Amino acid sequence: VNGGTTRFESSLNGLSQIPEGNDGLVGIHDGVRPFVSVNTIKRCYDEAQLTCAAIPVMPLTESLRIVEKNGNSKSVERANYYNVQTPQVFNIMMAKMAFAQPYQESFTDDATVMEQFGCKISLVEGNQENIKITTPLDLKLAEILINEKQPKD
């Protein structure tokens, strides 16, 4: 499957390759997250079978601040925020309908597309090693993970 110029387009291209009438589940995963655990994948699929959409998340560990338009900042309660991971697992027919809507810049991941379509997103526990490799520091961490054991939950 060819990728697109946006994540939305890449996911749409992948979904278009699934035969019509398939009412199973589809998992959409970032290629830059090679350390997802089998248990994280299983949790996503198990939950999506019950709810239509499930994504893995991890709680934040650092303090957060929000910057207002006037430049002032204030702290926010980190217990209300989570890092989102992949795979993001959806009912195939619902995903195809959701991805038929026009692209919006607010679509930062596949779950936001589904959410905009009206689908409730269930959260499941991810795994800490399921990092997104995007910076040189991420790459160094990935090398450490490769040289150690497989992902754990």
Quickly list its features.
153 residues; alpha+beta; Spore Coat Polysaccharide Biosynthesis Protein SpsA, Chain A; five-stranded mixed beta sheet; two-stranded antiparallel sheet; 7 strands; 33% helix; globular
Order of helices and strands: HEHEEEEEHHEH
Mean pLDDT: 95
Counted by DSSP, the helix tally is 5
CATH fold category name: Spore Coat Polysaccharide Biosynthesis Protein SpsA, Chain A
Principal-axes geometry comes out as globular
Structural class: alpha+beta
**Which spans of ≥5 residues are poorly predicted at pLDDT below 50?**
none
The total beta strand count reads 7
Relevant CATH superfamily = Spore Coat Polysaccharide Biosynthesis Protein SpsA, Chain A
> Percent helix among the residues?
25-40%
Please report the first level of CATH classification, the CATH class. Alpha Beta
The CATH architecture is Alpha-Beta Complex
End-to-end CA span: 31 Å
What does the largest sheet look like? 5 strands, mixed
The figure for the number of domains is 1
Q: Nearest-angstrom radius of gyration?
A: 17 Å
Q: How much of the residues is beta strand, in percent?
A: 15-25%
Any overview of this molecule?
Strands 1, 2, 5, 6 and 7 form a five-stranded mixed sheet that branches. The chain has a single domain, classed as Alpha-Beta Complex (Spore Coat Polysaccharide Biosynthesis Protein SpsA, Chain A). Strand 3 and strand 4 form a beta hairpin. The protein has about 150 residues and is of the alpha+beta class. The longest helix has 14 residues. About 25% of the residues are buried. It starts with 6 loop residues before the first helix and ends in a 6-residue tail after the last helix.
